[in-house]
# Entry
Amino acid sequence: MGAGHRYGLRHRDDHGLRAATDWDAAAAAEPAPAALFDLDTEAAGPPDDIASALAEFGRQRAALEASDDHARLRLLLAAESAAALIAVEMRTAGLPWDAIEHDRLLTEILGARPAGGGMPVRMQQLADQVRTELRDPTASLDSQPKLLRSLHRIGILADSTSRWELVHYDHAVIEPLIQYKRLARLHAANGWGWLAEWVHDARFRPVYVPAGVVTGRWASSGGGALQIPRQLRPAVRADPGWALVVADVAQLEPRVLAAMSRDSALARAARGQDLYAGIVESGAVPTRAQAKVAILGAMYGATTGDSGRLLPALRRTYPRAMALVDDAARVGEQGGVVSTWLGRTSPTTSAGWRDTQAAAAEPDASGADEAQARRRAADRGRFTRNFVVQGTAAEWALVWLADLRTRLAAMDPVNEDRGAPASGPVFSTRPHLAFFLHDEIIVHTPLARADEVAEAVRDAAASAARLLFGRFPVDFPLDLRISQTAAKD
DNA sequence: GAAATGCGCGCG
DNA sequence: AAAGCGCGCGCATTTC
# Structure
């Protein structure tokens, strides 16, 4: 848990405001290792008294004035400030969680829990079956090296025990083994132990870490809030008399790419619910599956396979969008810094990275030195390529969230007698954000406000698009439903 | 015996 | 069928 916090704090120091000023130079001059270890102490944490908070606020205001793009940074700061509040509010309110349903799902999938402890029935059956096929009644299934050796003994000469590799082998052990691994994962990560530790008073209360990811996305620390398996979503259940408004943006990142590159052809493809269908209609690629893999490849930097082969076609049809990501990759490869739409900058190169490049540039550099330098440059290029898109998508989502928070707060509370006490007094009488995951939100709301909330969610999305991209015509359609549970129907 | 590392897999 | 971005977590093993 502590480790997650430290990462979060470290990344938060990388935000765009500081990068846009000369603070970076001052920060870089400080002894870095000491600063890193200081993060474990109170002294290096965020301001915890009025005076230091005001001082930090003053520094931010001054830095903002000194920056050459006030409007965007101001928006980013406002969104981040709101996000910090929302993260704490969401933890306080909690995500309504039906422990009975969770237990029922676990029993259905894993089998009953033996009274005296031990492995659930269905898991145990699968484990027995796997050991039979391995012809080793004591085989260890949870130790990767031992399992790999067991597989080798029966002629499965895989290099790893990953599912994607195992599926290529035709052997009776494969199917039950993959099933076992699936169940073991659910049991270990979100089984009864997780339920007991993380769900209290019908609420799941994870620790959110706003801007915990370098790109500006949120991270979480404890509870695995950002990795709740879809299988368990039926356990997310509104209180009696309340509903969930669940909304996500379809294909947020390519839409953001269309807007920030002002690529009107891609924006045209993004008209309507399914961007990939729009790409097929444009004639760039023949099938929806290819459109998807091509777009992902463009944003992630694919070089081989189907995805890599489709990129030239994408470059012809969407030259502006592709130029934006290709430029970001080139800057990264050359050691430069890229920036999101609102001005969050990517991290600078590490000393190790620069050493590798310098070594390869020496006259006596070996072929291996050069190959390593090329590989690390390409790695960094893929990172910066993705950074601009992932980071700007995170900004869109933050603005959406922040705008929605204001709208929800303005709604009339309902009769307190109908409230949901588990969320505490503040959140028991009005709609409140209950969950956020990159491009998806869940609002917990009194039934009487559900339609109003749905409208607010849509209006907030429209606001976010306008605040970031002005009048540029790109759609951000929501998949929105009002329901008792967060499960997809 | 605690901390770091590798693996595998859940999420976007 | 796979590879190309960003994470957190649990477990087993290795290292200090």
Remarks:
- Residues 144-145, 160-163, 181-182, 185-186, 189-190, 217, 224-230, 252-253, 390, 393, 437-440 of chain A lie near DNA strand B (CB under 10 Å from a C1').
- The radius of gyration of chain A is 25 Å.
- Chain A is about 55% helix and 5% strand.
- The first helix of chain A runs from residue 2 to 12.
